[in-house]
Task: structure prediction
Amino acid sequence: MLPTIADVLALETVRRGGPQVVAGGDRLGSKVRWVHVGEIADIAALLRGGELVLTTGVALPSDPEKLTDYIGELAAVGVAGLIVELGRRFVGELPASVVKAAEQHGLPLVVLTRETPFVQITESVHARIIDIQLEELRASEQLHEVFTELSVEGASPAEVLAQVARLSGRPVLLENLAHQVLACESAGRDTGALLAGWETRSRAVAPPERTAYDPASGWLVTTVGARGQDWGRLILLCDVPPSPRDLVLAERAATTLALGRLLERHQESLERQAHGTILTGILTHAYADPDEAAARARAVGVPITGRRLISVVIRPTDPVEQALDGQAQLGELAEATAAACRDARLPALVGALDQDRVGLLLPLPPRTQAEPALTAVAERLRILWKPGASFVLAAGSVVESIRDVRRSFLEAEQVADVAVRQPDGRPFYRLPDLRLRGLLHLLRDDARLQTFAERELGPLLAHDAQRGGDLTRILRTYLDAGRNKAVAAQKAHLSRPAFYDRLRRLERILDTDLDDVESCLSLHVALLALESFRRDTR
Result:
């Protein structure tokens, strides 16, 4: 930042002149843009404002009225201050009219009681100004490099804000035009306190310019948007008026955010990113205090405090092989889920959990039961999502506290993993709906279940692997048909004699009787367990 009058007075070259402030003592914080030595009375016409004027007064008029005009003209052009060396023109003190005029105009007026080479003062001040300008240039270069790299890497809003907080040491927030917080970096502050009553506070701060500082709130606000389409505001919380570097930092960050929005193609919206960040923070225990998660959710318009919470995982049933297409499909599913919740008048956190799942944290309104709410979301989602695409909606247990949300989500993920294998079209799935299949999925990592499946099916799997056969599929078809050989042969697209021949081969390989109910039950359980081990969706 530019030096102030007070900074100049503290320089050794000035102190040797015995400086005394005779007027404008309350304006010593005025910035000094340059130092100008001038003795003529009409020097104001040569100035642009921000200069510190040095003079001995030898060429100033003796008429008190003209001296008063001289002071008024300097103040009118916006000079930072006036330093007068006593001894040549003014001996002992300045005329009272000069001091009075400077005080009236709020112009800092300083006298030097000892002779001082003005060149030493100008050299000292100009060296400091140039050093500051070089420092600001280096800082600007650093900011340019940092945010260019963020732009190239496609950094998320949370990553951009993290850099702003690191470089400024101040809290920074990104909000949309509805004054909902999309991302927040607290810089060590209490997040709950930062976000408390956010919408009301934010609406009260409406600077007229795209980038401006609001002294009442201590907010540095810059509009985020491009191509005439503004979509948010970046807010840097400042305890003191921001420096020029802070202004550059805020504007560079806003440009990076706007550029990232323009370059988005197959990525989720900022709202989905904000919701996804909160969900991930809850699931990974990133928030030391559950109240912080609640405050962040409330800031995006989702109140979760004091409500029963149900976790939901939504998975497309048709896998997409290409990662980019899969990301686009998941983004569309997340947006459609958010729209379905809005249509059902159920505020919720909705965001992608990974490449396969959309997460939904649904705070149930008072006197609202989980089943009707889940049904309403599922029905609207089937209408809103793209025609012909299908999904499974799996729900965990209803919990009373945000501390238990992670457990509920884990349960919902397990249910979704099982339900996506054989969806039957119901609106939503919960653990009791999966029966034996759900139990086997929960036990899929148990070595005893794995040993059981290997004991029952090992010879058959080895036979198919060695010969490239499909007898495992024949066995599954037979068991799925309830051991009805005629129906099973039809489903396998084989003649009855050919199908019966394969069954006899199965009996030899497995050394069992496929007409025995208990043997078939064991084989069926082993096949279901095998599916849970393999974890393939189709």
Remarks:
- DSSP finds 20 helices and 14 strands in the chain.
- The chain has a mean pLDDT of 87.
